[in-house]
Design brief:
Elements (H helix, E strand, L loop, with lengths): L9 H14 L21 H7 L2 E11 L8 E12 L9 E4 L10 E8 L5 E3 L5 E2 L2 H9 L7 H9 L7 H12 L3 H6 L6 H9 L8 H11 L2 H12 L9 H25 L6 H17 L6 H9 L5 H13 L6 H9 L6 H15 L12 H7 L4 H16 L1 H9 L10
Antiparallel strand pairs: 1-2, 1-4, 2-3, 4-5, 4-6
Helix pairs in contact: 1-11, 7-8, 8-10, 9-10, 10-11, 11-12, 13-15, 14-15, 15-17, 15-18, 17-18
Length: 418
């Protein structure tokens, strides 16, 4: 029954695409160049502390619920002043904040806020952050976000899967928020054996599987490649979270031989839903940028081309192949335009953009040449450019408005990985 409900699982595919988009945007102050297959970026505790003008370790004293227009307030006893650019707070003093935070006397919280022009403090919205003494020390001893990657992430490696869930969640989030190159920089520090154990443990949160798969690929060996292959095969088809990172790690360790396995067992398997196949394709896309040449570009292109056989994924594949300058599809896409894409405007638009991109792939003449413009005009365009121009003219006759819109708003981003 793996193929049953194929369409029903498509929303999961678009949710996965949305996660990748979030990783490339600055939302809520999250870094823009986060690892796109490690998980969904969040604001980490160290980022929150770095922004704070005031940071107090305090014990919960009492809660006064709100009444009518009067807001709820929570009173704390200040245990330690970690930061106070306003010089307003002292250990042992009480501080009352307009927010609703439940607790019991003696519970520890980290209160953080930013100074206002009025001299007051704008405390973080929502309930205060509950901490243990261990968690507080973890936060204040952590390297700042500006610290070089090898030292910064090296600190957080020690706290992956820490017993205190607040610490463990934040330590993993530090990797999710980091550019790929920073994660690669600490490959030699990654705990290979622990990563295998965590991936094999069903209690490990599912949203960490992708990141841990990537990390094992950076630190593992041939035995770990076999292990990752088995983890991928054992993944529940109804819950394929993390397959993209597991696949990327597997490809790092197995190269082109592993890519053939992924093609056969994942991409070409008609029983797999589109969302499951897309997770594997995402790993191939990511590998294009960060595979360090371990798989030839032509093989990655060939694997991506296989997605054209899946209508729901064809648009994504065409866009990636245009980015990768794979112009072997000029004839095939014209056939697709007249066939399966007839009633799919998005797929038609992707084909049009592919043709436009191809027409722009003209080798640059030496800038130093005084007759640069004349030389460009005299040299005939490459064969793929000429073919794409003819194709585009034909498409203009069929869908003039769609082609005009495509030419007006054409913009082909580089591969969406960081």
């Amino acid at each position: 029954m793996r193929n049953a409900g194929n369409k029903q699982r498509l929303p999961g595919l678009y949710a996965l695409v949305a996660v990748c988009s979030v990783a490339l945007s600055v939302a809520g102050g999250v870094v823009a160049q986060a690892c796109p297959i490690c998980g969904e970026p969040t604001v980490t505790l160290t980022e929150r502390l770095a922004r704070a003008d005031v940071a107090l370790l305090a014990q919960w004293v009492s809660l006064q619920p709100g009444q009518g227009k009067k807001p709820a307030t929570t009173t704390y006893d200040i245990v330690q002043v970690q930061r106070d650019t306003l010089s307003q707070f002292k250990s042992g003093a009480d501080v009352t904040i307009e927010h609703f935070t439940q607790g019991k006397p003696g519970d520890l919280f980290l209160l953080m806020g930013q100074k206002l022009e009025t001299g007051d403090v704008k405390w973080e919205t929502g309930p205060a952050l509950p901490v243990t003494e261990t968690c507080f020390q973890y936060i204040i001893q952590a390297p700042t976000p500006e610290t070089p990657a090898e030292k910064r992430l090296g600190y957080f490696i020690k706290f992956l899967e820490f017993p205190d869930s607040t610490i463990a969640n934040d330590a993993f989030a530090q990797f999710v928020n980091s550019p790929t190159k920073d994660i690669f920089a600490v490959a030699g520090q990654l705990p290979r054996e622990k990563l295998r154990r965590w991936l094999a443990d069903p209690k490990t949160p599912g949203n960490r599987r992708s990141g841990y798969g990537l990390m094992l690929g950076l630190s593992g060996n041939a035995d770990d490649a076999k292990f990752l292959a088995e983890v991928i095969r054992a993944t529940d088809p109804d819950n394929s979270i993390g397959v993209e990172g597991l696949t990327f790690g597997y490809l790092l360790l197995s190269g082109e031989e592993g890519l053939s396995v992924i093609e056969q067992e994942r991409i070409a398997d008609e029983k797999l839903a589109d969302g499951e196949v897309w997770a594997s394709a995402l790993a191939i896309r990511y590998f294009w940028s960060y595979g360090n040449g371990k798989i030839r570009p032509a093989r990655l292109q060939a694997a991506m081309r296989r997605l054209l056989e899946r209508p729901a994924l064809a648009e994504i594949a065409i866009t990636d192949l245009a980015r990768w300058k794979d112009w072997s599809l000029l004839e095939r896409l014209m056939d697709l335009y007249q066939g399966e894409a007839k009633s799919d405007k998005n797929l038609k638009a992707a084909i049009i953009h592919y043709m436009i991109a191809c027409t722009k792939d003209i080798p640059k003449a030496p800038e130093s040449s005084p007759d640069n413009a004349a030389q460009k005009a005299a040299v005939p365009p490459p064969k793929h450019v000429a073919t794409a121009r003819r194709n585009l003219e034909e498409l203009k006759k069929r869908d003039p408005e769609l082609v005009e819109r495509g030419e007006k708003f054409f913009y082909l981003k580089s591969s969406p990985t960081q």
